[in-house]
Every structure is written in C-alpha cells, then in structure tokens.
Amino acid sequence: MPITSHETSFEKALGDALRRLRAGRLKISIPPTFGLYRHWPMAHFHGTAEFFYQTGGATDFECPGEAFRVKKGEVCIVPSGVPHAETSVHLGTNYSALVAMHNATGFTVLNSFADEQGRIGNRELTTYSGKRGHVAFSFLEEAATAKSVEPSLRRAFIKSLVEAFLLALLSDIAKGSTSSLTEHSSPLVSNARKLVLAQLSDPQLSVAGIARQLAYHPDHLSRIFQQNVGATLGEWILRERIQAAKNLLAQSQHNISEVCWACGFSSPSYFIRVFRIRTGSTPKQFRTTTQTHSSA
C-alpha cells in the first residue's frame, strides 16, 4: 500500500502499521482482561476496545494485571473495560501516538502528543461515519480473547484480526466520510466537543485540560463555547456523561458502579446523586423503567 502525498496523517500512520504487520515487524501488546470495569487510581477505561499505535517516543501503560512499555512502531490493543493509565516517554524521538476509538456512528481517530511536562494532549482529531470501521472494533475484542485460541494458531489469529481492523478503518477514511459537528459555527467549539467525546470516560477530563490541548486559555474557550452552545463547557461535559450513562444503563450487563466509572464520574455515590438530580430518578430506577418499556 504506497503512501501518496494527498493521504491524511491518519492514513499514513495506519498504513505504516499495516505494512509493519504484513512484514512481521509489528509488536502487539494486549493487557489481560483483569479488573474489568473497576475504578483504578489515575486510570480510565472504555466500553469498547481501543487501538493505540505509537508513532514517536514511547508510552508506559499501567493496568491492573500488567505494566508494560509500547515503543515507536508498536501497537497496544486495550480490551473493553480494562482500566489503563498512560505515561508519555520521550524516547529517541518526541512522544506521539495514533489512537482509534469506537463511537456511536463509526469511529474516532486522534493524534496525541506530549508537552515538556509529559502531559498528553491531542493535536488532531476526526470522527468518521462508516459501517466497516464501526464494526471493525469487534475484531479487536476478538483479538483480546486470543488466549483461548490454540497456541500454534494464536499469532496468526491476532494478526488476521488486526489486519482486517486496519483495512476497515483505512477504507472508511479513504472515503472521507467524516462525521463533523456542523451545528455550531465555531471550529473551536467543534474541536472542543470532539475532544470531550473522545475522553469522556477519563475522570481527569476538565475544561482546563481541553483548553490546553487546543492551545487556548480556559476562560476564552468557556466564553466562546457558551456563546455557541448556550451552556458552559463544564455543564456540557456533565450532560454528555449523563447521556452516556443512560445508554449504558439500558444494557443489563453493566452494574451501576461499572456505568459510573465508564462515564468518568469520580465515585458511585456522586454519580447516583447527580443522575437523580438531572433525571428525577436513580440509575437503578431508570434502568428498571427503561427495561420495562422495552419489553412491553
């Protein structure tokens, strides 16, 4: 797959990962599915698998079952529900990474960087609408279960799934079917919303952190955001977390604490209190009512 001058940085990085995979030079780390959907200090987790390709420097991952380093040209697949904390390392080259995450209509791809203090931020982020890319994250989940595959077949099993995943994303990116937030005129507001949605499960998510990633002062960002949306950025983050919680509560496999941590709330008691204030019912009551209506 040759790289042409018109390719996006996402296509270039994913294409590079694909070539390394086919040449047998792509190391893939998959942390064990331990401590699923549980709060872990300084860590967060996602409801679906996450694809992480190191494009510069290195990342030190800490998960409940394992700590490891991912270097430039290597991949980490984080299974759904696995808490993980990331520390940037400027190793040979400056830290940078491509991250692909599932979303409601397709997937999100972002380029991460780290400042001199080692704080990780996102320089470029795009959401894509595409059925192939949307479904492809199930391939990552399958790769995470590879320990149950016959050892002699395991490596080929993982490689084939990752190759299918990369090809699906590259196919949708090549189509240019982006899912942009066009209802707001300000590009700054659109980018802020994309960053929030990509980091919603992170309990460290804050207005100051989003502003830093966008290279704007928090006060200026909040003022522009409120002018465009009619709510402060902090209020909008809370709204999105409540909506995400509603979506997860409709799925019976997640208990209340799991929903709490998955949506970035600091504690189950705080989550229950805020959810009741915002919706008029507790998470448990909301789940019961939702399931009753869906079965009627």
What can you see in these coordinates?
There is one protein chain. The chain has ten helices and nine strands. It has 296 residues and is of the alpha+beta class. A six-stranded mixed sheet has the order 1-5-2-7-8-9, with helices on both faces. It has a three-stranded antiparallel sheet with strand order 4-3-6, with no helix packed on it. Helix 1 (9-22) packs antiparallel against helix 3 (151-175) and helix 2 packs antiparallel against helix 3 (151-175). The protein is globular and about 55 Å long. Residues 1-6 and 180-184 have low confidence and may be disordered.
Question: What is the strand and helix layout of this fold?
Answer:
Elements lengths: L8 H14 L5 E2 L20 E7 L1 E6 L2 E6 L3 E4 L6 E5 L6 E7 L3 E9 L5 E10 L1 H14 L6 H25 L11 H12 L8 H8 L3 H12 L3 H17 L6 H7 L5 H12 L3 H13 L1
Parallel strand pairs: 1-5
Antiparallel strand pairs: 2-5, 2-7, 3-4, 3-6, 7-8, 8-9
Helix pairs in contact: 1-3, 2-3
Summarize the structure.
The chain is an alpha+beta fold.
Q: Estimate percent helicity.
A: 40-55%
Main beta-sheet annotation: 6 strands, mixed
Query: Which parts are unreliable, with pLDDT below 50 for 5 consecutive residues or more?
Result: 1-6, 180-184
Helix/strand order: HEEEEEEEEEHHHHHHHHH
Rg, Å, rounded: 19 Å
Q: Mean pLDDT across all residues, rounded?
A: 88
First CA to last CA: what distance?
A: 51 Å
Approximate shape: globular
Strand order of the largest sheet: 1-5-2-7-8-9
Q: Which secondary-structure class do the elements indicate?
A: alpha+beta
Number of helical elements: 10
Please report which band the strand proportion falls in: under 5%, 5-15%, 15-25%, 25-35%, 35-45% or over 45%. Answer: 15-25%
Strand tally: 9
**Count of discrete domains:** 2
